[in-house]
């Protein structure tokens, strides 16, 4: 399969690098990293280990591919969609956190698959990416159900050794992931604790409230996500990733823009369509945006 990876940062470089062992992969990213990869290849280290040589470029348009994998941060999705419009790709798959697939779908006239990834990735130097945890990619049709395209992409991932599930219930899975991220990411970022710090106490209650509100909004949207399932999901992730610093906590510590708009912001925006109040998500989004506008960003 010819695969374009749009956003060769941590996750895109790891997944694109793994795919490059059996597929024709082009990484689209920023200069020092892509020039190192095109000169000397890419080292994948830690939980996965490989040396691969995908094509790598800073040129965003004019590519021809069977699949474009979108792995930019959620706030860069509109720019990615614009660049992909000027490429000839047959299908798109997002592995991003937050509700980004709708942005891609409204801009592009090719099928957009939904995806979630629980692999951990960290770009530690140009040409070198750490796999900090082997997780799983789950992908499927955005509105649910199955399709030959989703099966083909799932097989392409599995052929490359990536643990992958093709799921028929992506609407529920996306909302479940959003509930987990709405609770854990914003609360850990604001209280500066690792994920395990949400196992009990006041911050834990705030995280659970945000997840519960998200589950309610998911049900308005037709996704089958009972509160109990959302609670079990967030508890499981807190337990399994106790030592993690969430991606949003890392962004805040690094003075970088967060994905709050596509996570808590998306819950607030969707809830408004149903005249439903989500005070916890609204407060978390407001505090993070205030931090971004104020002293936070470097
Ligand atoms: N890093 C991880 O372990 C995981 C990340 N995710 C999600 O994956 C997404 C990406 O996360 P990371 O890889 O950590 O972020 P990152 O910031 O390391 O990577 C994004 C990359 O996209 C590049 N980029 C942005 N706009 C571009 C453009 N127009 N053209 C070319 N390159 C462009 C940026 O320069 C950056 O290198 C996020 O939504 C994140 O929440 C999900 C699961 C795990
Ligand atoms: C699942 C979780 C919360 C793991 O840290 C994550 O997705 C993130 O940090 O963005």
UniProtKB/TrEMBL annotation:
Protein name, as recorded: 2-dehydropantoate 2-reductase
A Pfam match: ApbA
Biochemical pathway: Cofactor biosynthesis; coenzyme A biosynthesis
EC supergroup of this enzyme: oxidoreductase
EC number(s) reported in the record: 1.1.1.169
Residue intervals of the Ketopantoate reductase N-terminal domain: 3-143
Its job: Catalyzes the NADPH-dependent reduction of ketopantoate into pantoic acid. Catalyzes the NAD(P)H-dependent reduction of ketopantoate into pantoic acid.
Source organism (scientific name): Haloferax litoreum
Gene Ontology annotations for the cellular component aspect, listed alphabetically: cytoplasm
Classification lineage: Archaea, Methanobacteriati, Methanobacteriota, Stenosarchaea group, Halobacteria
SUPFAM superfamilies referenced in this protein's UniProt entry, alphabetically: 6-phosphogluconate dehydrogenase C-terminal domain-like, NAD(P)-binding Rossmann-fold domains
Keywords: Coenzyme A biosynthesis, NADP, Oxidoreductase
PANTHER family the UniProt entry points to: 2-DEHYDROPANTOATE 2-REDUCTASE, 2-DEHYDROPANTOATE 2-REDUCTASE-RELATED
Catalysed reactions, semicolon-separated: (R)-pantoate + NADP(+) = 2-dehydropantoate + NADPH + H(+); (R)-pantoate + NAD(+) = 2-dehydropantoate + NADH + H(+)
Any one of the GO BP annotations: coenzyme A biosynthetic process
GO molecular function, one term: NADP binding
Domain named Ketopantoate reductase C-terminal: residues: 171-290
Family, as annotated: Belongs to the ketopantoate reductase family.
């Amino acid at each position: 399969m010819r695969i374009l990876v749009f956003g060769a940062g941590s996750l895109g470089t790891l997944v694109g690098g793994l795919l490059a062992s059996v597929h024709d992969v082009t990484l689209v990213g920023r200069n020092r990293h892509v020039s190192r990869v095109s000169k000397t290849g890419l080292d994948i280290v830690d939980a996965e280990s490989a040396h691969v040589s995908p094509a790598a470029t800073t040129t965003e348009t004019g590519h021809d591919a069977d699949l474009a994998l979108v792995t930019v941060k959620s706030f860069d999705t509109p720019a990615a969609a614009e660049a992909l419009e000027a490429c000839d790709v047959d299908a798109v798959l997002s592995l991003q956190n937050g509700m980004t697939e709708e942005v891609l779908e409204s801009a592009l006239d090719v099928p957009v698959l939904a995806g979630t990834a629980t692999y951990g990735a960290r770009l530690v130097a140009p040409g070198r990416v750490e796999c900090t945890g082997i997780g799983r990619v789950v992908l499927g049709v955005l509105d649910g159900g199955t399709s030959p395209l989703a099966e083909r992409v799932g097989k392409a991932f599995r052929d490359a050794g990536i643990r992958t599930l093709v799921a028929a219930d992506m609407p529920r899975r996306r909302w479940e992931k959003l509930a987990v991220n709405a609770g854990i990411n914003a609360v850990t970022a604001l209280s500066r604790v690792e994920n395990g710090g949400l196992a009990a106490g006041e911050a834990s209650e705030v995280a659970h409230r945000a997840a519960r509100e998200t589950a309610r909004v998911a049900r308005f949207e037709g996704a089958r996500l009972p509160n109990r399932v959302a609670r079990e999901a967030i508890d499981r992730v807190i337990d399994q990733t106790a030592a993690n610093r969430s991606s949003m906590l890392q962004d805040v510590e690094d003075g970088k823009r967060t994905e709050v708009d596509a996570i808590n912001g998306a819950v607030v925006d969707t809830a408004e369509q149903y005249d439903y109040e989500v005070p916890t998500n609204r407060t978390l989004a407001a505090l993070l945006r205030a931090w971004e506008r104020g002293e936070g960003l470097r």
